[in-house]
Specification:
The chain is mostly helical. It contains six helices and six strands, in the order H-E-E-H-H-H-E-E-H-E-E-H. Helix 3 crosses helix 4, helix 3 packs parallel to helix 5 and helix 4 crosses helix 5. The termini are far apart. Bound molecules: zinc ion.
Length: 197
């Protein structure tokens, strides 16, 4: 990867612990975001960020041209997957999001292969951004089937939309990382207690 391809606005330091195995691909996609210079609040990834991220994971050839409509499509799929995360956090099912995911899977030509090795069980017919997202959709689908999906959470910090894999015993994790959002919440709680005393 050329160093020049990394946009400066990209969230470079993701303190969140990686999700197990192939699920990190899904977690990373759902957490990918940009920052306006100096602003803590995350924004959806730009075309350059998406290209850089997919390229770094060898899901997209460096010379691949990405169009605005590819980005818009990828972001719609991402929103629908995020709705699925909310569902595993107890919100009611978003039927529209579910329908969108099924349509997107069809568009990418994603299919599964019985008897294939684990890393080879998902095949995608589409190329480009659609092909790359097809891989992510296939991985997400398998995670929903085997129950791992249920451990995805969205960080409780209001300004943070990072998705994390909840490893806590009773699935009660709240923060994408204890060193960032978790720590900020602790400090806030401490100050609130001090103010009350
Ligand atoms: Zn967070």
């Amino acid at each position: 990867m050329e160093a020049g391809l990394v946009p400066r606005s990209v969230h470079e330091e993701d303190a969140t612990r990686a999700a197990p195995d192939d699920l990190e691909l899904v977690r990373g996609f759902l957490s990918l975001h940009d920052h306006e210079h100096g602003e803590p609040e995350g924004m959806p990834p730009s075309l350059e960020s998406l290209r850089w991220w997919l390229g770094a994971r060898e899901l997209l050839p460096a010379e691949e041209h990405v169009r605005d409509q590819d980005l818009a499509w990828a972001l719609r799929v991402r929103d629908a997957l995020t709705a699925k995360v909310r569902e595993s956090m107890g919100e009611p099912r978003d039927e529209e999001a579910t329908a969108l995911l099924n349509r997107a899977a069809e568009e990418t030509g994603v299919r599964v292969c019985f008897g294939c090795a684990e890393g080879d069980a998902i095949h995608v017919e589409a190329g480009g951004v659609r092909g790359a997202i097809g891989q992510i959709l296939g991985t997400a689908f398998l995670a929903e089937l085997d129950g791992r999906w249920e451990r995805f959470r969205i960080c409780h910090d209001a300004g943070c939309s990072t998705v994390f894999f909840d490893r806590s015993k009773n699935k009660s994790g709240k923060w994408c990382s204890m060193s960032s959002c978790g720590n900020r919440a602790k400090v806030r709680a401490f100050r609130a207690r001090q103010a009350a005393e």
